[in-house]
Design goal:
Blueprint lengths: L5 H9 L9 H7 L2 H14 L4 H13 L3 H14 L4 H16 L3 H21 L4 H13 L8 H11 L4 H14 L5 H11 L4 H13 L3 H13 L7 H12 L3 H13 L9 H14 L3 H14 L4 H10 L2
């Protein structure tokens, strides 16, 4: 494929949405950040009390790595609809990412807020499984003086076991891994089985192998994720990310990202503009600067505010 037309093809591929009744969720899913911003800003102008619009703006700013803006939008959505579990969950997520990019004093206060928001999300809706997973991860990663507690993380596994056994086994695997328990690997594999061969847990097993320094096993798990019978996440996107970060099988990572971008299964957790940035990075590593620049431009065509793509294009254009 001629790289000079990749920006056009990226936009053309997303064009079929234009003929339908497009929603902000559609635009978030397909990575059309500029269009999503335009639509959501219009909704807020028409109705300043539109909690859902603020919530989606939070998620949009989160995609764009605009942590201050994401947190502000999350606060607005929660203020307008304080009984919504998902809004509290995303407020916790936004606060967490801002904490990661703040000075220690600010991060300390934000961490306490993350804890409170995840607990509130679970209290409002015990079947919000992603909030339970977030809360379990907080318990695992936070120090004790900020509410970290591995036994509480395991309690989240027990709470979801009946309705979501794959998630329960995954949380137990994370607890075992953090505790240095040799059973962690088997728990990750158990999550794959109990979830009905869900690709997301093959991906989590690949992340486990990366953390353990077992790179060949990581690549095998990535390959298995692409063949899993239950495709419920982004195996090609996540697999490419892992290969890029470990500098393994870069041609394979390029193929995965192209498959993701043009395969018709884009997802909010893997914005198209992120995928174009990764693809550009891979091509740049292979010495193909022209093709890399095309990918950075494709990212910016979808998300002009995406500073990582803007910085990459400026660097390669010098």
């Amino acid at each position: 494929m001629i790289t000079a037309v990749r920006v056009f093809l990226a936009i053309l591929f997303l064009a079929p949405l234009a003929g339908a009744q497009v929603t902000p969720e559609d635009l978030l899913r397909t990575g059309r950040a500029a269009d999503a911003r335009r639509m959501l800003n219009q909704q807020v102008q028409q109705d300043p009390n539109n909690a859902q619009a603020y919530h989606l703006l939070c998620r949009l700013d989160y995609q764009l790595e605009l942590w201050d803006a994401s947190l502000k939008m999350a606060e607005k959505s929660v203020a307008l609809s304080p009984q919504n579990s998902a809004y509290h969950e995303w407020l916790g997520r936004a606060a967490g990412r801002k904490a990661e990019n703040s000075n220690p004093f600010t991060a300390f206060n934000l961490a306490r807020r993350v804890h409170a928001e995840f607990e509130r999300a679970v209290a409002l809706d015990g079947n919000n499984f992603s909030a339970r997973a977030d809360l379990a991860e907080y318990y695992l990663e936070a120090p004790g003086f900020l509410g970290g507690d591995k036994s509480k993380a395991r309690q989240q596994a027990d709470a979801v076991a009946a309705k979501n056994p794959g998630l329960a086994d995954y949380i137990r695997a994370r607890v075992d891994e953090k505790q240095g328990n040799s059973q962690a690997e088997q728990e990750y594999k158990k999550a794959i089985t109990s979830s009905g061969n869900d690709s997301r847990y093959w991906t989590e097993l690949a992340y486990f192998y990366r953390r353990a320094g077992r790179m060949q096993d990581m690549e095998t798990a990535i390959s298995q994720s692409l063949r899993a019978s239950n495709q419920s996440n982004l195996p090609d996107y996540d697999g490419a990310y892992l290969l890029l970060r470990t500098s393994r099988n870069l041609p394979g990572a390029i193929q995965m990202l192209r498959s993701y971008l043009f395969g018709g299964h884009l997802a909010e957790d893997g914005p198209a503009f992120h995928a174009h940035l990764m693809l550009g990075t891979l091509l740049e590593k292979q010495g193909n600067r022209k093709a890399a620049a095309d990918e950075y431009r494709a990212a910016l065509a979808l998300a002009p505010e995406y500073h990582a793509a803007r910085d990459a294009l400026a660097r390669i254009s010098r």
